[in-house]
Amino acid sequence: MFVAKVTGSLVATQKVASMTGHKLLMVEPYRVDEKDRDRLVPTGRTFVVVDTLGAGVDGGGVVGAAGLGAPGRVGVDD
Q1: I want to staple 76 with a disulfide (CB 3.0 to 4.6 A). Which of 8, 13, 68, 71 is the partner?
Q2: Exposed e or buried b per residue across 41-57, where buried means at least 16 C-beta atoms within 10 angstroms of its C-beta
Q3: From the centroid of its chain, how far is CA 32?
Q4: What is the pLDDT of residues 2-20, one digit of tens each?
Q5: CA dihedral sign, ordered 75, 46, 58, 43
Q6: Is the pTM of the predicted complex or chain greater than 0.90?
Q7: What is the chain's Cα-based Rg?
């Protein structure tokens, strides 16, 4: 799990059937600031996540993973 800010959304013209109805979001993870451990700072990296809770752009949240890579979660063969 990690804390991240939603920075945008994605549109897919084709999706695996199990992904129908799910939004795809771009998130930027945060990390603890090395100089001030009471502060979080952005990492500069971007990830694509599946929104299962209805998050919005510019919102924050916790991103979790069940231990499977994305292909295993959406029913795509490796």
Answers
A1: 71
A2: eeeeeeeebeeeeebee
A3: 18
A4: 888 888 888 888 888 888 8
A5: positive
A6: no
A7: 14
